Predict the structure.
Amino acid sequence: MDSVKVVVVASPFANMAPIYEVDPDADVLLIVPPNTKPFAPWDDAPVANGANPAQKTSAALTSTSGLRIKASSKHLSLASRVFRNKLQHTSAKSTQSDGRVHLSLAEGFDPKAVSIVLNAIHSRGSKVPRAVELETLAQIALFVDRLQLYDAVEVYADRWISKLEDKISEAYDRDLVLWLYASHVFRRAEVFKAVTKVAVAHSSGPLRDLGLPIREKIIRDIDTQRQALISKSLTVLHNTLDSLASGEASCSKFSCDSFLLGELVKTLHKNKLAPWPRPEKPYLGASHVAIVEAVNGSAQFQWRSTGPATDLWGNSVNGTEKVPSRKRKSPNQQPITPESSPEPVARSGSSFDTHACDARKLVGGFDALDALEDEIVGLDLESSLGFQRY
């Protein structure tokens, strides 16, 4: 579908929409149609099987009223090859009664974003905002992308993005997708790389494009890195499970290996990562961050004695020492003794035995899961020779 077309017969809408004057000597009337559909909706985007919806799901409605913009054909032609091609092929019959050629944009463009870009094209710098919100930035990016207007707004885009960089999303949500699209359109390589690294670690399936013209190669390469990262994460997990299940990492005192094995299996099942058989690609519904959080959140019991408090991994625990409470069958029930319980249990003085065992040492190796995130490379906009990759 064409992003812009010549309107030979003025529609009733053209007489009702507000007029915004960019050039007083305009020979073109650019019509921005009304659009009641939400911009880049997250809720309507397909979700990978088993994926949890992100917290940020809102999508702003575009303007319900359209806009007519008086513009210069010369400025439009210099700024955009799309506009130039349309205007070069117009005939005298295309000129309307007001002496202008009427060009109508396709639906989906935001009138505010279009007016900002038109002011930039016509060198009306005082009318171009010094800062914009992410929503507006993405809407500007859509207009710039479809009409090939990058060179006309490059300087302004650098300023807008620089003022927003500290707000880049650190989770896989709608904002992250908007950042991905805007950084690609405006060729901000460092922002694009940072955003794609977040997407690799946090996404649970192929990136949701939200109806934006994000290139398929970008989505495919992000998901390729995501799957490779999850494969490494699962390898760490399954090596640990195999060692615990086989008895290679055992505990002769409190059966920590059995306890840990059970906790890990339950955690993986809860997060739709049943350990046997091992999940296979494309790991829909799974993300590296979710795996790390699930493992770190499982079996957080304190094991302590009169010495420093330690957790199940044998690490020191700061703060007030707490003793896990036990529900007794009756007020007269005596505390369970260490000799009769497979778990760490209360001894005299409300303390726990501390000990070192192979199971503790093995689970301490889960730090390798966090380290995997440092290996994410993300996507580079340009090759080492300066060629555009995307």
